Amino acid sequence: MRFIHTADWQLGMTRHFLAGEAQPRYSAARRDVVAGLGALAGEVGAEFVVVAGDVFEHNQLAPQVISQSLEAMRAIGIPVYLLPGNHDPLDASSVYTSALFKAECPDNVVVLERAGVHEVRPGLQIVAAPWRSKSPTADLVAEVLDGLSADDGVARVLVAHGGVDALDPDPTNPALIRLAVVQDALARGAIHYVALGDKHSVTEVGDRIWYSGSPEVTNFDDIETDPGHVLVVDVDATDPRRAVTVDARRVGRWRFLTLRRQVDNNRDVADLDLNLDQITDKDRTVVRLALVGSLSVTDRAALDACLDRYSRLFAWLGTWDRHTDLAVVPGDGEFDDLGIGGFAAAAVDELVATARDGDDDAQAALALLLRLADRGAA
Length: 378
What we know:
The chain is an alpha/beta fold. It has helices spanning 22-35, 37-44, 63-76, 99-104, 140-145, 179-187, 266-278, 297-311, 342-356, 360-372, and strands spanning 2-6, 49-51, 80-82, 109-111, 116-121, 124-128, 155-161, 193-197, 203-206, 209-211, 229-235, 244-250, 255-262, 285-295, 316-319, 325-328. The chain folds into 2 domains: 2-250, Purple Acid Phosphatase, chain A, domain 2; 255-377, no CATH class. It contains 10 helices and 16 strands. It has a 6-stranded mixed β-sheet with strand order 4-3-2-1-11-12, covered by helices on one side. Strands 5-6-7-8-10-9 form a 6-stranded mixed β-sheet. Helix 7 (266-278) packs parallel to helix 8, helix 8 (297-311) crosses helix 10 (360-372) and helix 9 packs across helix 10. Keywords: Exonuclease, Hydrolase, Nuclease.
């Protein structure tokens, strides 16, 4: 028995830094990766898809988002089982109970609304732990596993969402999934694979316990180390122990990169320019720069010109303010050859002195002056 484990689609997600046409392209990519699971399922012979929570970004979605999302799920072509998670719980405002969702939900899509065992077909069951609020007061997985005994003729897949106590830094969270409870259920044969959602990077928690991660990136690489995957899972129905193999498949196309650089001179600026130039698929790449250093006004103008150019090529490029610390110190003689005199030269000298005291406006004015004089081009 083979199926696809995925999670955290978060359809309808927006990223505040994406402007203009980049946001619609990013939204379309998130839908496209969902629809593309049909081709992957056909390639590997998958029987169904489980989505372990956070199918949608939240419950208050524009009708167009709901309709387009359901159409993407229809395109998968095989049964798709959706688990409500913390972003889209089964509360009073649930998207899953909306008139639009119910009217347009394709026949191949099943919402795992009820906690407990769901029959997929003879010999195969899903054990679901859906969220009914954003803040559960108990371990939902422990509740559905309580009293669940082994059935020698049935393979069972647990589908759940949330943090596992062995990985989560907040042990006081009552909703944490207790790893020991899950491992005990696996050991006694009550379940045979655990499909988890919540972490956006593919993660093996333990034997037969996996987070699939989000199929398309949602955050920068210092937070999400390995996004953009789905898992192809095999459960050997001929083996009494239901042996499992897991194959991570990359399906995402976007990247959110963080680049940290020391920039102290024109060579460092040129190196950064080269690094940015060598990044492929710029229109699907978001770049956050953490820049530290001390530059002359001329070199800072060259840096600004460089960043201005690449901001037009990437889906988004900008500095990470909390981790960027650039000092601008006018160099000796840096403004001696502007070809000006009198009052104008005195004004430039005053700006230089003010800039050396750390005045941002003076530094910006000098940088603009150099660019207008055509000496700060990248």
